[in-house]
Amino acid sequence: xxxxxxTGTFIDEITVDIPSQxxxxxxxxxxxxxxxxxxxxxxxxxxxxxxxxxxxxxxAVSDRVATLPVYVDLVRLFLDLSEARGIGFYxxxxxxxxxxxxxxxxxxxxxxxxxxxxxxxxxxxxxxFRGWYLPHETTDSSLRILDINTTLAEQAKSSTGLPVLISxxxxxxxxxxxxxxxxxxxxxxxxxxxxxxxxxxxxxACAFQDATTDLLQLEEYTKATVEAAxxxxxxxxxxxxxxxxxxxxxFPPTDWRKLAHRLDTVQPYVDKxxxxxxxxxxxxNSMWPxxxxxxxxxxxLIADRTR
Length: 307
Prior knowledge:
With 307 residues, the protein is an alpha/beta fold.
């Protein structure tokens, strides 16, 4: 079996719980060169907007929500940088961080339906535009997520023909579950059989966040995910988190040994490995010196596994 490397990354430029690196076009060009050198063929902008902040101008959003000025069209920049390097770009939709949390899923959908049409009209001629990402992440069917995601996936696929990616999380750790009990792999399988059934024909790939379960249980949860998706045509990827959830600060680059274990564990089960996310947590260009070291350790691991 050929060892699967990380071949894709999210970009979190509308940062929520990680710091901004304050990069401009020059820094992003250097980073996309690094993507190509590292063998990445997929870049996913995790969200093109969150709340009042946007990565590109959007009348669809600003007509409904008060927004801050857009100083750089990052979507156009990322598409152009991707095109020049043969990288496929997935565009994440808008997350209001408001309506759907208040069970007003219809307003969340209305804004995003207009947003999809607007983004496709503006950027659809780019050969690098290869897919869509649905940024409304949950672990199950709560917050009307099935209504949100099925509606938006159907529109994105029917109007553009491009694939749709999601990246949910496991209820596999106490810090994730909170007051609720941690779910067993069997409970996870049963819940996601139903969800994947709803997503069949609409969602093309699902990359669970791999550090949302304990290290020693990742294989069980990954197996359960593959079983739940069987027969649906939904490809199972892995989202290898390169940040550390276990440190008292939020969030530094992860310990390289944790990353190595998680990469080794999912090898037999997944079709592709992407990460959240290379620029902050595993890039030699990152603001974190330990990210630079993580990249070197990752290169050492890949050299060892592929010799």
